Sequence to fold (180 residues):
Amino acid sequence: MYIRVSEIPGGGLDVFAARGRSAIPRMLEGMDPAPLSTCRLTDAELVLTAESGDLWAEGLYTAEGEAPCDRCSEPVAVRFAKAFRSLLVPKAREPAGTSQAELREEDLDVGYYDGRGLEVNDIFWEQVALELPLKVICSEECRGICPSCGANRNREPCSCSAGTSQGPFDVLKNLKGKKE
Ligand SMILES: [Zn+2]
Ligand SMILES: [Zn+2]
Fold:
């Protein structure tokens, strides 16, 4: 969804009120949401305001997706939401823009655009990418998959883990024992 700066009225543009909300669920299409396997927006708001060439993008979103558990590989549903406020300055003004941006709040998100318009999908891609977890686990108690027999230890207690632990050092000990 491309918005030209010339389309933004003085009071700002409520993007989804003006263009409809039907594009929201498809806004992240084409994005690689790793480590999630799927991710889509369930809700989004965005208001664009133009101020002497700079653009303010103020919005929020809720997203949902799915990821394989880092320990047991079972699918895990993931939900997250974020509100954001970004300042986009024209690329051509980058040197001046940077010093100007440095004077503003430190935690303010500052980016660049070509001065003509912007792709709304990119704004949400960027904001979603910032919130993607490094890894997903189904629960803190997840016992994962047994490295020896491949059993999901949340569902079945495998016999390998009962009694003697089969770590790499045990295997070495056994090998040594056989040689001697
Ligand atoms: Zn798990
Ligand atoms: Zn096992």
